């Protein structure tokens, strides 16, 4: 039977390896889920794939597990980044969760001319990504970067990574993803209100930027993120079976 | 200047038509937004497109507006239904909101063998769809149906409407939407835990059902809904420019 509990443990995973859950994890495993010696969980660390681990000692303050066997090798997502302008807290959390499920390799919050947020709890967003990976069966946790100005990021951008620019101003026009080349990409989603005229002019002039429309209705930023990630994964990513 | 307030008013919209907002709407327009005679809003009713209406009388208990001119004709979405098994309240609300933004024409909550929810507030979900249409600039509000058993719905299904079945059990396999025919479709999203073996066997045997995989990671139902709607809209719907 497949263990019901699936946990991210930032420790090496190999046969016979002992695992020491931290206090929060021990509380979850042994107080909330009431696991006892002999019970099994699934563990992953983002690098070594997914493993079965067996409880050897149950204690709300610590306890121990031993790694038994690998159930899956690590599956890295395609080389796709998501750049987005943070919005309301709940929707920002949601974008990080969805980007993890959808297989983004890196998540980069950016400040744009129309971004409201000046500060962002990177550690909290990283924890959200980790939790989403636990839930979606992923063996990889995307890195959430610190908030940085879009202009600064673009100034030092490696042009070999192309940017798929979801441009709200293009609502109604259409640009298909068909025919785009595989390789490193980043998806750029704007804030509510879109990009400023100066940002639009700058993005339009960059040779590595491809604008795309997401249909005739205005999408919220969180919807646009999932929609753009879907189209990219189906056309260029790991949904293609290639 | 484009009016900032955009409101669904279930009244006929035509030049010179007088509009009487209900009490909640009057409170929003005249108390919250503090609109005064001469101020303008955008109004739509889901049938007659989008219109500019001007306040003629401001009162928290009622007030009146007069329809000035049309800004956009009604834009109906493609003939696409979304069938989904209701999940936790917040995520169910979210699915209705997203399906509206993504241009589903009808939203049908279904009971499956693994659905938790036995009751659903249809009126509350319909209000969510309406609010989402106000936000996303849509001129159409999808109908949210009452909760009904999937088995009953399938028993009387019109086979000319094909079903795109997002099958969690197929995670890892791939089925592209390329080559599918245009026409009436419905997208079917399962609950957490997917479909029961009996449901899977039944769906697999129906000639109008096409299974599809949404990549190698397990998606939450709300993510899967947006992903499937994106792929369908880009391949067969109103994102294609056709």
From TrEMBL, chains A, B:
Among PANTHER family, the record links this protein to: 16S RRNA (URACIL(1498)-N(3))-METHYLTRANSFERASE, RIBOSOMAL RNA SMALL SUBUNIT METHYLTRANSFERASE E
Q: Which GO terms describe its biological process?
A: rRNA base methylation
Q: Name one Pfam family in it.
A: PUA_4
Q: Which NCBIfam families match?
A: PRK11713.3-5, RsmE family RNA methyltransferase
The protein's UniProt keywords, in alphabetical order, are: Cytoplasm, Methyltransferase, rRNA processing, S-adenosyl-L-methionine, Transferase
Similarity field: Belongs to the RNA methyltransferase RsmE family.
Q: Which GO terms describe its cellular component?
A: cytoplasm
Q: Where in or outside the cell?
A: Cytoplasm
Q: Which InterPro entries would you find in this protein's record?
A: Alpha/beta_knot_MTases, PUA-like_sf, RsmE, RsmE_MTase_dom, RsmE_PUA-like, tRNA_m1G_MTases_N
Single annotated GO MF: rRNA (uridine-N3-)-methyltransferase activity
Please tell me where this protein is predominantly located. Answer: cytoplasm
Enzyme Commission code(s) on record: 2.1.1.193
Read off the SUPFAM superfamilies from this record.
alpha/beta knot, PUA domain-like
CDD domains attached to this UniProt entry: RsmE-like
Uppermost EC category: transferase
Q: Where is the Ribosomal RNA small subunit methyltransferase E PUA-like domain?
A: 22-62
Q: Which reaction does it catalyse?
A: uridine(1498) in 16S rRNA + S-adenosyl-L-methionine = N(3)-methyluridine(1498) in 16S rRNA + S-adenosyl-L-homocysteine + H(+)
Question: Which residues does the UniProt record annotate as the domain Ribosomal RNA small subunit methyltransferase E methyltransferase?
Answer: 77-233
Purpose: Specifically methylates the N3 position of the uracil ring of uridine 1498 (m3U1498) in 16S rRNA. Acts on the fully assembled 30S ribosomal subunit.
Q: What is this protein called?
A: Ribosomal RNA small subunit methyltransferase E
């Amino acid at each position: 039977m497949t263990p019901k509990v699936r946990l991210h443990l930032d420790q090496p995973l190999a046969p016979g390896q002992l695992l020491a859950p931290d206090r929060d994890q021990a509380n979850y495993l042994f107080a909330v889920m009431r696991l006892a010696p002999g019970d099994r969980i699934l563990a992953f660390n983002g690098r070594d794939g997914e493993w079965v681990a067996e409880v050897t000692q149950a204690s709300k303050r610590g306890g121990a597990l031993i790694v038994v066997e690998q159930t899956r090798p690590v599956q890295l997502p395609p080389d796709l980044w998501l750049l987005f302008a943070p919005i309301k807290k709940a929707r920002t959390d949601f974008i990080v969760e969805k980007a993890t499920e959808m297989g983004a390799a890196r998540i980069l919050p950016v400040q744009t001319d129309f971004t409201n947020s000046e500060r962002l709890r990177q550690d909290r967003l990283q924890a959200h990504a980790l939790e989403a990976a636990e839930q979606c069966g992923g063996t990889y946790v995307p890195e959430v970067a610190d908030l940085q100005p879009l202009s600064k990021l673009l100034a030092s951008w490696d042009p070999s990574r192309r940017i798929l620019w979801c441009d709200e101003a293009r609502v109604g026009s259409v640009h298909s993803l068909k025919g785009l080349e595989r390789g490193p990409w980043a998806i750029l989603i704007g804030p509510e209100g879109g990009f400023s005229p100066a940002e639009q002019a700058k993005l339009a002039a960059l040779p590595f930027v491809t604008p795309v429309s997401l249909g005739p209705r205005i999408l919220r930023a969180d919807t646009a993120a999932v929609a753009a990630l879907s189209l990219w994964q189906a056309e260029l990513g790991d949904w293609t079976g290639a």
